[in-house]
TrEMBL record:
Keywords: Metal-binding. CDD domains: VOC. SUPFAM superfamilies: Glyoxalase/Bleomycin resistance protein/Dihydroxybiphenyl dioxygenase. This is VOC family protein. Pfam families: Glyoxalase.
Amino acid sequence: MSAPALQTGHVGLNVTDLARSTAFYRQVFDFQVLGERVDGERRFAFLGRDGTLLVTLWQQSDGRFATGLPGLHHLAFQVPDIEAVRRAESTLRELGVELVYDGIVPHGEGASSGGVFFTDPDGIRLEIYAPSGVDSAPVPTSGAPTCGFF
């Protein structure tokens, strides 16, 4: 018997300030709020597009995302083309978000795919990438995938 087909449903993230994170993810990813609870002790937001749940935010943490501990490495979102990555980069710069690399970079040496790398307000590492169109940009990390070491 073969295993059933799988696909990622949604990703849940712990945040320190629900309002701040909801605004960030809405501005950067053009997510809609599909559901939320913004008062009381149990605060959360369900974010997505066209009725499809993509990210849940849970206000139940303090401090910053600990990149040195086991767990999530980064969260990547694929967009259709390099123009969409450029629009995202522009939005990030308008918001004053510090980029990990100087602009859009390829996933590795000789790769056509690539994107922009940054963190959310709580330090969660994020990527917006396109499957092609980044051929001419220099590689920031030689000998290893760009998305693996930021």
